[in-house]
Design goal:
The protein is of the alpha/beta class. Helix content is 38%, strand content 17%. The protein has six helices and nine strands; from the N terminus they run E-H-E-E-H-E-E-H-E-E-H-E-E-H-H. Strand 1, helix 1 and strand 2 form a beta-alpha-beta unit. The protein is globular and about 60 Å long.
């Protein structure tokens, strides 16, 4: 209707089955049950992917789909009750440091493994795909590297300067045991992430410190 020449649809790594083979190749889509806690979100994203493919078949419309891994970075949501793991950890460790707490509680066992991509790398990948990719197949976007939640928590602890202990609340769920994307397709196209995790965490924490007054009531 608006004569758009191309559309980029952002999906999510949540589209893949809970017990998908690791690292997760794009062909794992719709091969098994989803993670029950976010299946509604995943189904909405899968519907978007299929819509793009249908528009391509029916109208020849150039709609491409990218599947980002877990994201973090400047401008994130730092609400304690509904933020994702990295902003939640940054805020927890920062406020514990200010209070002089002896420990910080992290949900789960710490053994689950996750992959994280800086939002600036995501933006770079989005522009890259708009300029260099016109295929119907979905494209994973991530670093191809994961770490345990325990390793992540200790890195955030170090970045924020918190000197206490980390305690794990094992009554809380870990979620999917591991979620690492196979990023060979986008590497073959010529794109690779530039921001390593620690560098991105330092940048994110600096932004949070400069803007923390906006989150005090959250």
């Amino acid at each position: 209707k608006n004569q758009a020449q191309k559309v980029l649809f952002l999906g999510s790594s949540c589209i893949y089955p809970k017990m998908a083979n690791q690292p997760i190749n794009e062909n794992e889509l719709l091969t098994g049950p989803l993670e029950p806690t976010n299946e509604w979100y995943a189904i909405a994203k899968i519907a978007g992917i299929k819509m793009c493919q249908a528009y391509r078949k029916q109208y020849g419309f150039n709609a491409v789909s990218m599947m980002p891994t877990n994201l973090y970075g400047i401008g994130d949501n730092y609400h304690l009750e509904n933020s994702h793991v990295i902003p939640a950890l940054i805020r927890k460790f920062h406020e514990a440091k200010l209070r002089g707490d002896n420990s910080v509680v992290v949900w789960g066992t710490g053994k689950a493994k996750r992959e994280f991509l800086d939002v600036d790398d995501l933006a770079d990948a989005a522009v890259f795909l708009m300029e260099h990719y016109d295929g119907s197949e979905i494209v994973n976007v991530g670093t191809g590297v994961d770490l345990t939640i325990d390793e992540l928590a200790n890195t955030v602890k170090d970045v924020t300067g918190f000197e206490g202990d980390i305690e794990y609340d094992t009554s809380k769920p870990d979620g999917t045991p591991r979620k690492l994307l196979d990023v060979s397709r986008i590497h073959e196209l010529g794109w690779k992430h530039k921001i390593e995790l620690r560098e991105g965490l330092v940048k994110a924490y600096q932004w949070f410190e400069a803007n923390q007054q906006n989150f005090r009531a959250a």
